[in-house]
Amino acid sequence: MFSRAISAARPAANRALRSNFGPSTLRAFSVTPRASSGGHGPPPPGLFGPGAKPGEVPGIADQSTGIERLQYLGDAEGIEVFDTAPLDSSRIGTKKDPILVPSPASERLVGCTGSPADSHDVLWFPLMKGRQHRCLECGSVYQMDYYGEEHHDQHHH
């Protein structure tokens, strides 16, 4: 069930990561056409809970949706959905040997606390695929270890 939920959520997450929402790109649900597979098989599984039975108070398994449900299903199966482990702070990253930051997206925010950990206040900066970034406080160099789908952020017209 978890792997079906992951495959259902991946396209929406990829679109959300690369979209820029502006007034012209948003529209009301009332005018959004319903997506259909055209009768070519069952629809993909949704990330919606079954809801509570009448007269019962719903729990997280009944009412969670989206990313919260994805994390709940992963926890239920013993799978860590989000990598929340801290980065290597035992050393200062250099240009030749940077601190590698795993990421499925081509851009992500990174927070540096120095080496050893908590040597300075957290400094947040954007890290982009194919580029290195140096922390302005401690000088540690970071580089993205990209594991996402190649060309997923290129738009085809």
From TrEMBL:
<dbReference type="InterPro" id="IPR002124">
    <property type="entry name" value="Cyt_c_oxidase_su5b"/>
</dbReference>
<dbReference type="GO" id="GO:0046872">
    <property type="term" value="F:metal ion binding"/>
</dbReference>
<dbReference type="GO" id="GO:0006123">
    <property type="term" value="P:mitochondrial electron transport, cytochrome c to oxygen"/>
</dbReference>
<feature type="binding site">
    <location>
        <position position="138"/>
    </location>
    <ligand>
        <name>Zn(2+)</name>
    </ligand>
</feature>
<dbReference type="GO" id="GO:0045277">
    <property type="term" value="C:respiratory chain complex IV"/>
</dbReference>
<feature type="binding site">
    <location>
        <position position="120"/>
    </location>
    <ligand>
        <name>Zn(2+)</name>
    </ligand>
</feature>
<feature type="domain" description="C2H2-type">
    <location>
        <begin position="135"/>
        <end position="157"/>
    </location>
</feature>
<feature type="binding site">
    <location>
        <position position="112"/>
    </location>
    <ligand>
        <name>Zn(2+)</name>
    </ligand>
</feature>
<feature type="region of interest" description="Disordered">
    <location>
        <begin position="30"/>
        <end position="64"/>
    </location>
</feature>
<dbReference type="GO" id="GO:0005740">
    <property type="term" value="C:mitochondrial envelope"/>
</dbReference>
<keyword id="KW-0479">Metal-binding</keyword>
<feature type="binding site">
    <location>
        <position position="135"/>
    </location>
    <ligand>
        <name>Zn(2+)</name>
    </ligand>
</feature>
<keyword id="KW-0862">Zinc</keyword>
<dbReference type="Pfam" id="PF01215">
    <property type="entry name" value="COX5B"/>
</dbReference>
<protein>
    <submittedName>
        <fullName>Cytochrome c oxidase subunit VB-domain-containing protein</fullName>
    </submittedName>
</protein>
<dbReference type="InterPro" id="IPR036972">
    <property type="entry name" value="Cyt_c_oxidase_su5b_sf"/>
</dbReference>
<dbReference type="InterPro" id="IPR013087">
    <property type="entry name" value="Znf_C2H2_type"/>
</dbReference>
